[in-house]
Amino acid sequence: MTTQGTDRRKGLAFAGAVAVLAAVGVYLTMSPSTGGGDRDRTETVAGTAPATVVSSPPPAAAPSQVAVTPGTFDVYRYLPLSRSELGAAADLAQRFTASYGTFEYSEDPAAFASRLNAFSTNEFGEQLTRAMTDPAVVEQNKADRVVSKGSAQVESIRDMTPNMVVFVVGSVRHVIAQSGEKDQNDQYAVTVVKAAADWRVYDMQPAGAGQDGDTSP
What we know:
Elements: H1 2-30, H2 34-48, H3 83-100, E1 103-104, H4 109-117, H5 122-132, H6 135-144, E2 147-161, E3 164-177, E4 180-195, E5 198-206
Antiparallel strand pairs: 1-2, 2-3, 3-4, 4-5
């Protein structure tokens, strides 16, 4: 009896040990590895982390190729003469041209030349005197009883330096004579030069003759 009881207890103990070992094996099989799980989670977090977006500056706007006049553009900043200087020179050229076209047959030619000389340099004044007192011109005007009334308008600037301006001046002469009444239209290139604080007419040519305003001797 003693031997059989002992054998039975041994068998029960062995069966219990087997059951415990089986339970531990099942637990270990079903439980995730601590080290591997942490690594997997780390890799997952690293793989799904949002990328950093680096913002780029907007591209520079291309300059406009359309010409636009600024609202405060001052053209006189780019000219060799001031507004007042240029205005005085233009006024002289205009008044001279109007006077050049104003005369009558009964007027003393020397007085006519003297009136024009008041606008001119000495050299050009001498040329005007010779032209206005030319006997052939004087006799022709007297014979036709010419009365001429001139007007003028500055039309453009042909050339400019700090001491000289060439204006294109339009001239209209209303002529009354025995040969008839008419309006004569002309264009002149009138060169004016600085004379101290004033201006003087240096030359006058038909605008189509190509007067370039050269004031060299």
